Structures are given as C-alpha cells and as structure tokens.
Amino acid sequence: MMPKRGPLCVGEKVQLTDRKGAMITALLEHGEVVQTQRGVIPHDDVIGLVEGSIVTTRSAAALHQMQLGQGAGMAPASTGDDDGSIQDAKKPWKAARRLGGWSYTVMRPRLADYVLSMPRGAQIMYPKDIAQVLTMGDIRSGMRVLESGAGSGAMSLNLLDAVGSEGHLTTIERRSEFARIAGLNASVYFGGMPKRWELLTGDFDTVAKDCTEHGYDRVVLDMLDPWNRLEAVERLIVPGGVLSAYVTTTTQMSRLVEQMRERGSWTEPEVSETLQRDWKVQGLAVRPNHQMIGHTGFIVVSRAMSPGIEALRKRERATKDTYADIDGATAAESLEELELRDISDRKLRKVLRDLEHQATVVESGMEQGALE
C-alpha cells in the first residue's frame, strides 16, 4: 500500500487524539459528525486538513446554529461561549471542561492503530504478536504466504503489507462471516480488495487439497489444533520454508511442539511470548505504567526439512527423564525415582559431601567459641 500524503479526503480514515491520549477513529464523509464526550466534530472541519492539524469540538447547539446559518446564507454562528472564557489563551483547558472547545490532533492512523480500532467479529492478534510473527517468521516482500484463520483480518492486513505488490497471500477461513469481515476490513484499509489476496472459505483440510504442492514460502497458522495440520503443511511448504503458529494455551503449545519433534520434518521449534509494558516519562517521574499487555499467546516457529530428511535433535542426558508421568508409572518406577528425575545420584552425593563438610566446620567453630 502506497503511503497517503497531502490533505485528508472523503473516504479516508482519520485518528483523533486528545491531550489525555484518548483516541477516536472515523471514516470521513461529507455532512457527518464525530461524537465525543466533550462535543462533536463535523467531518467537514477535518476534510482538507493536513496531518498534524488541530480540530476543536463544537457544542451541539453551536453546530445547530451554524447549520441553520449556512442554510439561510448567513455567516456561521460563533462557537465561543457567551462569557468569552473560551478565548482565554492562558488557560484553554478551563473552557474545555464544558461541552465543546476540546482539542484533538488529526492524523492518518498507523496500521497498528487501524487494526485495534477496526470492527471485529473474532478476537484479533495484538500488534506485539503480529510483529513477532512477521519478524521471526521472516515474512518479506515478494513471498507466497499461506494463512489459516483470518478472524477479523488483523494478521491478514499485516501479511498483505509485508508481501507487497510482488507477493501473494492465500487465506483459508472456516467461517464465511469471519471471511466477510476480514475482506471488508481489508477493502476499507487498502481502498479495495487487494488483487494479491486469495480469500478462501471452508475447512482447512478440504481447501488445502487444492492448493499448490510446495507452493508457499511461509505458512501462518492461527487455529485451535495446528498439530493436526502439520502433514498438510509439509506438502504445501517449500523446503526451508518457515511455519509460524499462534496458540494461546500451554497445552496447545506443548502438544504442537512435541508433535513437530515426533514427525522429524521440522527443525527444533522456537517458542516465545511477548509482554508489552509501556512507561510514563514526565520529568523525574519515570516509571512503568500500572497496566500492561501481558500474556496473549505463544508464537511457535520452525523450518521445514527437505522431504525424506529428518531434522537433527539435541541428545538428552540419560540421567534425566522429563517424559515419564506419575499417573502412568509402572511398578518398577517408584515415586522417589520420578520425583528425583532431574538430579543424578552423583550430584546428590556431591551435595551431601559439601553440606556435611560445612556442618562440621560450623560445629567446630561453635565448640571452639564455647571453650574460649
């Protein structure tokens, strides 16, 4: 998508931000207004401005008078208050406490702002997770990407932006209503449905059968059971291609990782989560904000091996058993053995020798002190 410059036009989305950081996103239309808690902003006051301008809310009464005056061929009614306090340049925030007279900065929204404010059906991925997928998943211009799970289109918009005009995105969404929402969000953002996007509706296993074998450089999965799709993905992704999977729970993450290892067709999975903490910086008051965006999901990233080649695996030490479960223990496995599976007998003997020596030294020192 080419960056938009110059005056704001009808059909563009704008982001209005006040001095407290409150944001409002609106699609510009002639004759419409943005309603705020401190008055209204006519869209016509915004159309034609350049980014970085300031607009001020009007009271409903002032807007009504202005509309009547314009309709009668008269000059617009003043938006100031009867007592003239709105003209007090030294303390403009006092007048802003009343309805009307509250200022907003006008900008075109960033993609992250658009994603967070767009209408949604399904829960979206947060920008912090999307950035991790794009970076660790190595999704770049000109690539062919397969995505499963469009949701409301948050990830899809970023993928379309990343692959650029030379790339191509194929998205499979099981629910037709979600596919419709994602498609409309993309149409509003890009000014029409991108030609480089193929949005398919249906079950992943069924739709994927008709997709080109080894036709995708990257695959992104956002679904409940990605481990059940590994066989299909292996057929579709090129050797060396990167698979990125987004899952929300530890059980999903663990099951996916173990299944990838068991299949042997994937390099050792990399698992990460991103926690976002914003900071307050005001003079000497520099501290983290009280609220943060904590756990939202895990990103599992791995690369596809060449067909028939098994991935190398790190050899586990024989003294460690991290897979035996107490509920499935056999008669030969005692409770003590399972509880101590992360510590060897040799290490236990070393720890005991060290502690016994320390205890002897302490006792000798106490006895010597008592004699003195």
From TrEMBL:
Domain tRNA (adenine(58)-N(1))-methyltransferase catalytic subunit TRM61 C-terminal stretches: 111-283
Top-level class of the enzyme under EC nomenclature: transferase
Catalytic activity: adenosine(58) in tRNA + S-adenosyl-L-methionine = N(1)-methyladenosine(58) in tRNA + S-adenosyl-L-homocysteine + H(+)
GO biological process, one term: tRNA methylation
Residue numbers binding S-adenosyl-L-methionine: 173, 222
Any one cellular-component term (Gene Ontology): tRNA (m1A) methyltransferase complex
PROSITE patterns (UniProt xref): SAM_TRM61
Record CDD domains: AdoMet_MTases
Keywords recorded for this protein, A-Z: Methyltransferase, S-adenosyl-L-methionine, Transferase, tRNA processing
EC number: 2.1.1.220
Gene Ontology molecular-function annotations: tRNA (adenine(58)-N1)-methyltransferase activity
InterPro entries according to UniProt: SAM-dependent_MTases_sf, TRM61_C, tRNA_MeTrfase_Gcd14
Lineage: superkingdom: Bacteria
Assigned protein family: Belongs to the class I-like SAM-binding methyltransferase superfamily. TRM61 family.
Listed PANTHER family: TRNA (ADENINE(58)-N(1))-METHYLTRANSFERASE (PTHR12133), TRNA (ADENINE(58)-N(1))-METHYLTRANSFERASE, MITOCHONDRIAL (PTHR12133:SF1)
Known function: Catalyzes the S-adenosyl-L-methionine-dependent formation of N(1)-methyladenine at position 58 (m1A58) in tRNA.
UniProt subunit comment: Homotetramer composed of a dimer of dimers.
Protein name per its UniProtKB record: tRNA (adenine(58)-N(1))-methyltransferase TrmI
